Fold YtoQ family protein.
Amino acid sequence: MELTVYLAGQIHDNWREELEKKAKAKNLPLIFVAPQTNHDRSDNIGEEILGKQPSNLYKDDAASDINNFRTQVLMQKADIVIALFGEKYKQWNTAMDATTAITLNKPTIIIRPESLIHPLKELSNKANVTVETVEQALDVIGYIFE
Amino acid sequence: MELTVYLAGQIHDNWREELEKKAKAKNLPLIFVAPQTNHDRSDNIGEEILGKQPSNLYKDDAASDINNFRTQVLMQKADIVIALFGEKYKQWNTAMDATTAITLNKPTIIIRPESLIHPLKELSNKANVTVETVEQALDVIGYIFE
Amino acid sequence: MELTVYLAGQIHDNWREELEKKAKAKNLPLIFVAPQTNHDRSDNIGEEILGKQPSNLYKDDAASDINNFRTQVLMQKADIVIALFGEKYKQWNTAMDATTAITLNKPTIIIRPESLIHPLKELSNKANVTVETVEQALDVIGYIFE
Amino acid sequence: MELTVYLAGQIHDNWREELEKKAKAKNLPLIFVAPQTNHDRSDNIGEEILGKQPSNLYKDDAASDINNFRTQVLMQKADIVIALFGEKYKQWNTAMDATTAITLNKPTIIIRPESLIHPLKELSNKANVTVETVEQALDVIGYIFE
Amino acid sequence: MELTVYLAGQIHDNWREELEKKAKAKNLPLIFVAPQTNHDRSDNIGEEILGKQPSNLYKDDAASDINNFRTQVLMQKADIVIALFGEKYKQWNTAMDATTAITLNKPTIIIRPESLIHPLKELSNKANVTVETVEQALDVIGYIFE
Amino acid sequence: MELTVYLAGQIHDNWREELEKKAKAKNLPLIFVAPQTNHDRSDNIGEEILGKQPSNLYKDDAASDINNFRTQVLMQKADIVIALFGEKYKQWNTAMDATTAITLNKPTIIIRPESLIHPLKELSNKANVTVETVEQALDVIGYIFE
Amino acid sequence: MELTVYLAGQIHDNWREELEKKAKAKNLPLIFVAPQTNHDRSDNIGEEILGKQPSNLYKDDAASDINNFRTQVLMQKADIVIALFGEKYKQWNTAMDATTAITLNKPTIIIRPESLIHPLKELSNKANVTVETVEQALDVIGYIFE
Amino acid sequence: MELTVYLAGQIHDNWREELEKKAKAKNLPLIFVAPQTNHDRSDNIGEEILGKQPSNLYKDDAASDINNFRTQVLMQKADIVIALFGEKYKQWNTAMDATTAITLNKPTIIIRPESLIHPLKELSNKANVTVETVEQALDVIGYIFE
C-alpha cells in the first residue's frame, strides 16, 4: 500500500528533501508532492505564463491562480498532508493548506517549533497530530505500516 | 503521477489534436478525454441508436441523453478540465461542462480569446485559471510537474 | 409551505416582473430572488466598491467577484431555480447558473424559445423541465401546490 | 430574507462593533456572530471550565477545544463569512476560519490592508471578494439586497 | 418540533387521508406532502402544460418531467418518508421514491401487506422500519414525540 | 481506460451472458459485476450462512442483508450501471438498484420493453438513457470509446 | 439564536432533567431532544408496534429499527450533541450516537467520569470537548452565547 | 477485483490471523488492514514519539492522536469493514470504528457472540450483516466473488 503525502509549508529551507531522504532510509512506500518550492518561480508564474500585469496586486493574483490550481490537483491525490510551520513569515498558505486538508477529511500532521504553540493552538487542535520535528512526523506515518 | 484531462469546448477546429501533440512534445504524463468531436455523429447519435424520432426536438433530446451520458462517465474520471471557448456559436455545452467541473471541485482552466472577456467574466472568475492559448493552458498543467 | 425561487437569466426585458405578477395573481406562496438586473450597476459594481481598475479585464473581474458572491448567497437559499434564455447575447451566466443549480440538485426549470432547442439540447436534457413561456414555468411550480 | 454573518478575524480592536453599527445604519437585515472577542477569556476558557492544566501547552489545547467548538456551531449557522486581517500577529485562526468557510462553500469576504496583499495572495484568490475596509465589505453584502 | 412527512406510494385508494386524519386525532405535529394523487392529472400534466406530444412515449416523458420536479422539491423538504406498497400494479415510482429517500439518508418507513414480504425484501431491509398498516406507521412516528 | 459496469435487473434469463459476449466481440474494455444470479442461492444465502430462521420473513431478511452487502460493495466499484426490466415479476430490486445508482450520480442506462413505458416513465426520466435492447445499451457504452 | 441539543447516553439516572433544569436557570435558549429514556418502552417498542417476535434476537431487532428511526430524525435536527458515559453497562448506543454525530460534523461534547479516560481515549480525542460533569458541558455551550 | 478489508475490533486474541489464513485458503483476493494490534505499542505510541506526558490523561490523549490518524488513513482505503466484538472490555473503539464505517457508507459486517445481542442491538441493526463467527464473515465476503 503506497501512500501519497502532500508537504505543505514554508519553502525557505530544505526540510522536504530531509524528510524524503529519511523516508527512503526507512523504506516507507511514500510518494511526495508539494507546492512549487522555487520562491521566485512561485511569485512570478502568473506573469511568466500570462504576461506582464498592471501592478503587483495583479501579478500576485495571476500567480495565485496557478499556484492554487497546482495545489488543488495535488492535494486531491494526497492520502496524508503534512504542514510545517517555521518561525518566520506569515505562512498563511501553510495555514490555508492545512485547513483545507482537515476540512476535506485528509489525515493531517502539523510540524511546528515550541515557540508557535500559542498562535497555532486552534489549528493544531483540529489536526490529527502535532509534532515538533520532521523525524516525529515520519514516525507517525511509519506507524501506519507496522 | 499520470493525470486525466477532460477537454471540453468547441468541436469546430482541431485544437484538441494540437494540444495533445504539444503535451506529447513536452513529455507530460497526461491522458486526454473529450466529448464526441464528430459533429454529425454527435447530433445524430440518438437516432442512430434509438431510431427515427418524431421531430428535431426529440431527435435532439435523444442525442443529448447519450452525449450527457458520455460526458458524465468521462468527467468523473478527469483530474483536470480544460474548457475552450471560440468566437462562434452559443457554446452552451462548453459553459455547462466548465460549470459542472467547477461545482464538482475539478481544477478547471478556461481558454478564451480576448474578445470574450466580458461575456465570460463570471465564469472565468469561478474557474481556477483563464488563459488565451492552448500553449498557456499546457504551461499551467506543466507547472504541476516541476 | 413557502418556496424561494431564484430567477437566473437575461436582464434585458422585464420577464421577472411579469412572472412575479402572475405568481401573485395565482396566490402562489413564492419568494423571488435574482441577480442584479440593472445592467450598468452589474457591470460597474466592482469599480463602484473597489475603485478604478487598470483596464476592462480587471474591471470585469472585480465586478464578477461581487456578482458571483451575490448569486452564491441567494442560490443557496433557493428551493427552485428558473433559468430563462432569450435569443440575443451569449448568456453564459444563465448557462452557468442553471448548471450550478442542477449540479447542486436544485430542481431547475429552463425557459427558452423554440429557436434555441438545438444549442441548448444538452443543458435542457439535464434540467428537470424545459418550457417556452413564463406562464408554463409558473404552471409547473403551481402543480406542486395542487 | 435575514442573513447570518460570521465575523472571523483579529480581536484587538473594535472593528466588529463598527461594522455592526454601520449595518444597522443601512438597515441591512443581518445577524452577526463571532468568536469570543475577550482575549483573556478566550485564552483561559479551557482552565476556567476544566480546571488547572499541567503547562501552557495543555492550557492552550483545552482552550482551543472550546473555542473550536464555539466556532463550529456558529459557522454552521452562517450564510456569509467575513475574515478581517490586521497587520499584527500571526492570525492563523483568521486564516483557518476563512479557509474552512471557503472549503464548505460559504460565501466569503476578506478584509485586509494593502500591505498584506502579497502574503495573503493565495487565500484572497480563493475567497469570493477581497476588500480593504469594513465599509467596502458592507457594500458587498448590501449589494445582495438591491 | 414540527416534522414534514412525504407520503410516497399508490394513489388508488385514500390511505393518505386516513393517515392524516389519524395523525390529527393523535395531535401529532406533522405536515404531509405527497405526489399528485389525481391519477389523470398526473398522467396528463405534461400535455396540459406543454401541449400535445407526438405519441404516448413522449406524453409520458413530458408528464414525468413535471412529476419528478414536484417530488424533488417536496422530498427535499421532508424530514421523514413513508412509502406504501399495495398489491396491484408495478409501483416502481414507490420503489424509486423510497430508494431515493434512503440514499439521501431520509428516515424511511415502508408499509406493505404480508403478501409482498418476498419481492420487497431487499428494499425493506434498507428502510428504517417496515410495517403492515398505516396505524403502525403513525405509531412509529408518534414514538419520536414521547 | 477500463470501465466497470454493474448489471442490475432480472435474473430469469441469460441477458448478462449475451451482453458480455457482445461486449467482447466489440473489444470494449469493460468489466462486468452483478448481483447473485442463481435465484435459489440468492433466496437461501441468509440461512446458508446464518442458519435456519424462524419463518420466511426472517429467512428473507437474512438473505437480503447479504444480498444488499454484495450490491453495495460492487456498485461502489461501478463506473456505469445498466438496469434491465423484463415483463414478469415486481422487479423492485431492479428499481432500487437503478434509483440508488442515479441518486449516487452513477451514469445509468435502463433497458425495458415497449410495454413497460408507462409504469417506468418517472424512473426512465431520471436515468441518463433508456433503450429497448441489450445491443442498444452496448452501443451507448461503445460511444464513450469512439 | 436557538440551538437544538441531542442528549445521547445512558438512561439509568436523571442527568437529562438535571441538565435541562440548569440550562433553564441560566436562560440558555436551548431545545433538548433525546432517545427514549423509558428503558422498558425502549426495549419493547418493536413488539408493542409490530407484535410478538419469535425470540429475543428478533424482539431486539424490531425495537432497534424503531429506536434508530427516532434517533436519526432527531439527530438530523440537532445543532449540538452531548454524549454522557456512565460507569455501568456497555453503552454502545452512546458510542454509536457520539461517533455518528462526529462523522456528520455535529459539534460534540462527551461527559465521562475520570475512571473512563482510558477506554474512551480515541473517541474523546475525536469529539470537540470532553468534560466530567453536566455543569461543565453547559458551561461549554453557554460560552457560545457570551 | 481486489478488495481491501479493515479489521476493527479487539486486539486480545489472534482472530485477525485466523481470518487472514482462512481467506488465503479460500483464495479470496483480499488485502487486510487493521489498527495497531500490539496493545502496549498502541497505549504508549504517544509518548514513544512525542516524549513523556504529564499524566495518564495526556499520555492517552497523545496515543489516541496517532491511533486515530492511523485508522483514518487505513479506513479511507477500505472497501469493507469487519468489526469484531468480544465479551470482555468496553470496546468503544470497535463501536467507534464500526459506526464511522457505517456513517461513511462503507459496507460493514459485525461479528459478535450471542451474549452480546442485546447491548449491540442498535449498532447491529445499522450494519449490513451481523454474524457470530469469523468463518461466517468470510462466507459473506466470499459471496461477492461467486
